[in-house]
Design brief:
Layout (H helix, E strand, L loop, with lengths): L1 E7 L3 E8 L2 E9 L4 H7 L9 H14 L7 E5 L10 E3 L2 H9 L9 H12 L6 E4 L27 H14 L8 E7 L3 E7 L2 E6 L18 H8 L6 H8 L4 H6 L4 H6 L6 H20 L11 E6 L5 H10 L7 E5 L3 H13 L6 E2 L2
Parallel strand pairs: 1-4, 4-6, 5-12, 7-10, 10-11
Antiparallel strand pairs: 1-2, 2-3, 5-6, 7-8, 8-9
Helix pairs in contact: 2-4, 10-11
Length: 361
């Protein structure tokens, strides 16, 4: 069984081809280094407008690898309405909702459309899937309450990778995921934090809606009254403000770059002001981990797991570990992402009839 995995992020499109569970090839298209991409898309706009550009680049990679047969294509799930965990067949209703009615304008919205487009070229359109999308919702109802009746919190988090590294950690200590209480911090272009209580993620610090710390491209929590003033200042349109919150905020707004690798390479020569901005971002990560401790209602928390792309920078993980050293919970760093393997496994469970694909309605 050959399965192609497509994982679109804000600054990359990651591809991987598996034969069963064996990796045949993988490739990362780096949009942060693509000036044409930056000129076209590093401004407010529907992320689905990028589909043709990214599709052309994907097809080029597939041709270079002489790929002529596939059994399934799996894309990263996007900002759909809250749905249960599982693997879903991509259909036109899903694509329409992601284009016209997404919960947020996020690169993951491209995953389903890219998967279906590639599947059609291989005549397997009924084997285009998404698994555990960003809006997989296990939050306890009480944690959705806010101080404004019209506004409810919702799930938008790195469900795939958080679940995958939780299972990896559990396996490493001879336990099962549903036996442990874990706090997982996924640090990337955006960051999400999950309270995993015995296999269920009962609360998350949302990666998109304006919660938590600022990140390479998210504004994070903003003083509400100041944000309201900005909304009525006539300085920005609604689309421009949404872009500032999720896409054009954080380091990109403050430092005019979201390229953390470049900041890492040049860290020693960065000005003090830039270092302080980075330091405050990292401190924000630590605060968000601590924010979830009360959700366990006094139960023992077995471990904190730090994961995601920018968790590969020791400066970040070392500082978080130092910040958290006195709270009495161990910290494990599992850098990078397990999303490709999690997407692959979601498809294999369907292909081998271990579970049924869900229909998106």
């Amino acid at each position: 069984m050959k399965t192609l995995i497509i994982n679109p992020g804000s600054t990359t499109t990651k591809l991987a081809l598996f034969e069963e569970k064996t990796l045949i090839f993988e490739h990362k298209i780096d949009h942060a280094q693509d000036q044409e991409f930056q000129d076209k898309f590093c401004k407010p706009g529907n992320v689905l407008d990028q589909i043709d550009y990214r599709l052309d680049q994907i097809n080029t990679i597939l041709k270079q690898n002489n790929l002529d047969q596939l059994d399934a294509v799996v894309g990263r799930g996007g900002m759909l309405p809250p749905i249960t965990s599982g693997t879903y067949t991509v259909n036109e209703k899903m694509i329409d909702d992601l284009y016209h009615r997404p919960l947020a304008n996020h690169a993951s919205n491209l995953g389903a459309a890219l998967a279906l487009s590639i599947a059609k070229t291989f005549n397997i359109s009924d084997h285009a899937y998404i698994t555990d999308p960003v809006t997989t919702d296990e939050i306890e109802p009480k944690h959705k309450i806010t101080g404004i009746a019209e506004i409810k919190r919702y799930a938008a988090w790195h469900a795939l990778n958080q679940k995958a590294v939780s299972r990896e950690y559990a396996n490493s200590i001879g336990k099962k995921y549903d036996e442990l209480n874990l706090i997982v911090a996924h640090l990337g272009g955006g960051a999400s934090f999950g309270a995993h209580k015995k296999g269920k993620t009962i609360n998350v610090v949302n990666a998109l809606s304006g919660e938590g710390p600022f990140t390479p491209e998210r504004a994070g929590a903003i003083p509400a009254q100041d944000l309201i003033s900005l909304c009525f200042s006539k300085k920005y349109t609604q689309d421009q403000l949404n872009y500032l919150i999720a896409g054009g905020g954080g380091l990109f707004n403050l430092l005019k770059t979201k390229n953390v690798y470049e900041l890492r390479q040049n860290y020693e020569t960065l000005p003090l002001e830039t270092k302080e901005i980075l330091d405050e971002m990292i401190t924000g990560f630590s605060r968000s981990v601590c924010q979830l401790i009360p959700d366990f209602e006094g139960e023992k928390i077995d471990q904190i797991i730090i994961t995601g792309g920018i968790a590969q920078w020791p400066l970040i993980t070392d500082k978080i570990q130092n910040d958290l050293q006195h709270i009495g919970i161990g910290v494990t760093v599992i850098p990078g992402e397990k999303e490709m393997e999690a997407l692959r496994d979601g498809a294999l469970r369907i292909l081998y009839n271990q579970e049924q694909a869900k229909e998106y309605k």
